[in-house]
Specification:
The chain is α/β, with parallel strands linked by helices. The protein is built from 1 helix and 8 strands; from the N terminus they run H-E-E-E-E-E-E-E-E. Bound molecules: copper (II) ion (CU).
Length: 141
């Protein structure tokens, strides 16, 4: 008698359920591995960002009495220097090779520059040619 319902030779539970179970558990394993991988990547990213953020420093150079103080400073790549004009006249901070150049820094104002690359950067004030300074940027370990 055919009433439109196809009969399978086996009960559905014996053949489909185990297959479904296998594919499901394999998918779970892959998903689990993927989430572990993502967690690892996140951890590496976060710790390296945190390390970089902790390692990067800011250094002050004061401009006073027509001098940069200190006139010579050593920093690490990634560090920033903040020049603050504590003098009673305008100054500028302009590197010899054009890596950085401030506008006029008025009394009480600051200019900052982040040094990403190692090197030796001599600089001066274009308003007072005798004012000279140097920044030595060491490679980040
Ligand atoms: Cu000056």
């Amino acid at each position: 008698m055919d009433n439109g319902v196809r009969k399978t030779p086996y009960p559905l539970s014996t053949i489909h359920y185990p297959l479904h179970f296998v594919s499901c558990s394999r998918r779970n394993t892959i998903a689990g591995m993927r989430s572990i991988l993502i967690a690892c990547v996140c951890w590496v990213c976060l710790t390296s960002f945190a390390t970089a953020a902790l390692a990067a420093e800011s250094h002050e150079v004061s401009i006073a009495n027509l001098q940069f103080k200190p006139a010579s400073i050593s920093i690490k790549a990634g560090d920033t220097i903040v020049w603050t004009n504590n003098d009673d006249r305008d100054h500028t901070v302009i590197s010899t090779d054009g890596t950085f150049a401030s506008d006029t820094i008025r009394r009480g104002e600051s200019f900052s520059f982040k040094f990403d690359k190692p090197g030796k950067f001599t600089y001066g004030c274009k308003l007072h040619p005798r004012m000279k300074g140097v920044v030595i940027v060491l490679a980040q370990k």
